[in-house]
Design brief:
Layout (H helix, E strand, L loop, with lengths): L2 H16 L5 H17 L15 H4 L4 E2 L7 H7 L6 E6 L2 E2 L13 E5 H13 L12 H9 L3 E6 L9 E7 L6 E3 L2 E6 L4 E10 L6 E10 L4 E9 L5 E10 L4 E8 L4 E10 L5 E10 L4 E10 L5 E10 L4 E10 L6 E11 L5 E10 L4 E10 L3 H8 L5 H17 L5 H12 L8 H13 L1
Helix pairs in contact: 2-6, 7-8, 8-9, 8-10
Organism: Halomonas saccharevitans
Protein name: Fe-S cluster assembly protein SufD
Pfam families: SUFBD_core, SufBD_N
C-alpha cells in the first residue's frame, strides 16, 4: 500500500472509530469502498482516462474532515446566488441548517440531507444509492463510498412540478487546516415530475480544500430535469465529481456544466438513455486562468432506439491554464433511429494556454444520425480592431468577443443569476453604458464577416 493511500485510509479509520452505530448494509458498502480504493490507489497518468490529469496534489494532500458548519451568515450571503429558491446548504461537507431554506417545500417534494434520509428511512435510500455509481467506476468513487455520510437527497412524487429552483449549495472555508468532503447527491424523479436543480460550489478566497462528489440521478418516464452545476471555488480548491444519470422513456435531462474556479477540476458525466424518446442535452462551459486545470469527461450511452442527445462544450483558457475534453457517444446494438450530436470548441486567450480534446463516436447500429467535431482557435484580431474603431476599449472588445464565443452555451441558460456570474468571470465587469446583448450580437456578426 502506498503512503498516499494509507494516509486517506488512516483518516477513514479515525472517522469510523468516532462514528455512531449504523445499519449493516452501510458499513458493508463503506468497507467495500475502502477495499476497492486500497486496491486501485490513486489514478496516474499511465491510465488512459487520466493521461492528461495529474492528481498528486490530492494524493499527497494532508486533509482533515470538517466537524462543524460554522460560517458567517454575512459571508454566506455574499457567496449565495441571488435567486428565490428552496435551499440546502453544506459547509465543507457538513449540513448547515441555519443557511438552508426548507420551510416552503411544496407537496410531493422530499428534500433533505443524506444523514436525515438515512436516519428516517435508510432502506428506501439504500436501494438506489450506489446503483449507478459503484465502487468499480473509479478510485475516487470508491473513496467517496468509503467516507459516505452526508449529502443531499431529492425525491419527487409522480406529476409533481416544482416552480422554484432547488439550490444545493456547497461552501468551502479558508482555514489553517485543509479539509476534505465526500458529498453524495441522490435525485429521484417519478413519472411526469419536473424541477430545476442548481448545484453551486463556491468558497472563500484562499480556500484550499478537496471536494470528492458522487451524484446519481434517476428520471422515470416523462420526468424533466434542468440541472445547473456552477463551480466557482477558489483557485486553490481541488474538485473531483462523478455524475451518473439514468433516463426512462420520454424523459428529458438538460445539463449546464459551468466551471469557473478550482485549481484542479475533474468532472465525469455518464448518461444512460434507457427508454425510447429519452433526451439528454449536455451544455458545458469551462473557463481557466492562471495555472488552472479543468478536465471534463462525458459518456452518453444510447441503450434504446429513438433516443436523442446533443452535446455542446466550450472551453476558454487564459494564461497557463490547461483544459481537457473527452466526450464519447456510444450507440448500442439495435439502438436504431437515434440522433447524437457532439461539439467541442475552444478559445485560447494566451499562447501558453493548452487544450487536449478527444470527441468520440462508437456506433453498433446502422440507422442513426450522429456527428462530432472539435475546433480550437484564438480571438480574431480584425474583429477586435473593428470594435475598437467603434469607440470600445481593447479590454471590453476582447471581453465582448469572448462572450460571443460562449454565446451558444449561454443562450440556453434561463437563469439570470447564473448567467451573470458566468459573464462576469469570462468578460469582467463591462461598462454599464453598453447594451451587452446588442454588442455581443454585433461582435458575432463581425466574426462572421
Amino acid at each position: 500500500m502506498s503512503e498516499d493511500v494509507k494516509t486517506f485510509l488512516d483518516r477513514l479509520a479515525e472517522r469510523n472509530a468516532a462514528r455512531e452505530p449504523e445499519p449493516t448494509w452501510i458499513a458493508a458498502r463503506r468497507q467495500a469502498g475502502a477495499a476497492r480504493f486500497e486496491a486501485m490507489g490513486f489514478p496516474h497518468r499511465r491510465v488512459e482516462a487520466w493521461k492528461y490529469t495529474d492528481v498528486r496534489a490530492i494524493a499527497r494532500g494532508d486533509f482533515s474532515l470538517a466537524r462543524d458548519a460554522e460560517f458567517s451568515p454575512a459571508s454566506a450571503a455574499a457567496l449565495t446566488l441571488p435567486i428565490e429558491a428552496h435551499r440546502l446548504t453544506f459547509v465543507d461537507g457538513v449540513f448547515a441548517p441555519a443557511l438552508s431554506r426548507l420551510d416552503e417545500l411544496p407537496g410531493g417534494v422530499a428534500l433533505m440531507p443524506l444523514s436525515a434520509a438515512l436516519e428516517e428511512n435508510h432502506e428506501a435510500v439504500g436501494g438506489p444509492l450506489g446503483r449507478l455509481t459503484g465502487v468499480e467506476f473509479s478510485s475516487f468513487a470508491a473513496l467517496n463510498t468509503a467516507f459516505m455520510e452526508e449529502g443531499a437527497v431529492l425525491r419527487l412524487a409522480p406529476g409533481t412540478v416544482v416552480e422554484k429552483p432547488i439550490v444545493l449549495q456547497f461552501l468551502s472555508r479558508a482555514g489553517e487546516q485543509a479539509v476534505m468532503s465526500h458529498p453524495r447527491i441522490l435525485i429521484q424523479m417519478a413519472g411526469r415530475s419536473e424541477a430545476t436543480v442548481i448545484e453551486h460550489h463556491v468558497g472563500e478566497e484562499g480556500a484550499a480544500n478537496f471536494t470528492n462528489l458522487v451524484e446519481e440521478i434517476i428520471l422515470e418516464r416523462g420526468a424533466i430535469l434542468n440541472h445547473y452545476k456552477l463551480q466557482e471555488a477558489s483557485l486553490q480548491d481541488l474538485h473531483v465529481a462523478s455524475l451518473h444519470m439514468e433516463q426512462a422513456r420520454d424523459s428529458r435531462y438538460t445539463s449546464f456544466n459551468l466551471n469557473l474556479g478550482g485549481g484542479l477540476v475533474r468532472n465525469d458525466l455518464v448518461a444512460e438513455l434507457n427508454g425510447e424518446g429519452a433526451e439528454a442535452n449536455l451544455y458545458g462551459l469551462f473557463y481557466g486562468q492562471g495555472r488552472q486545470h479543468v478536465d471534463n469527461h462525458t459518456l452518453v450511452n444510447h441503450n434504446a432506439p429513438r433516443t436523442y442527445s446533443k452535446e455542446n462544450y466550450k472551453g476558454i483558457l487564459d494564461d497557463r491554464a490547461h483544459g481537457v475534453f473527452n466526450g464519447k457517444v456510444m450507440v448500442k446494438r439495435d439502438s436504431q433511429q437515434i440522433e447524437g450530436y457532439q461539439s467541442n470548441a475552444n478559445l485560447l486567450l494566451s499562447d501558453r494556454a493548452e487544450i487536449d480534446t478527444k470527441p468520440e463516436l462508437e456506433i453498433y447500429a446502422d440507422d442513426v444520425k450522429c456527428s462530432h467535431g472539435s475546433t480550437t482557435g484564438q480571438l480574431d484580431e480584425e474583429a477586435v480592431f473593428a470594435l475598437r474603431t467603434r469607440g470600445i476599449d481593447e479590454q471590453t472588445a476582447r471581453g465582448l468577443l469572448t462572450l460571443a464565443f460562449a454565446g451558444e452555451v449561454m443562450d440556453q441558460v434561463a437563469l439570470d443569476a447564473v448567467a451573470e456570474r458566468v459573464e462576469l468571470a469570462v468578460a469582467g465587469k463591462l461598462p454599464e453604458r453598453f447594451n451587452l446583448a446588442g454588442l455581443v450580437e454585433a461582435a458575432v456578426a463581425l466574426n462572421e464577416e
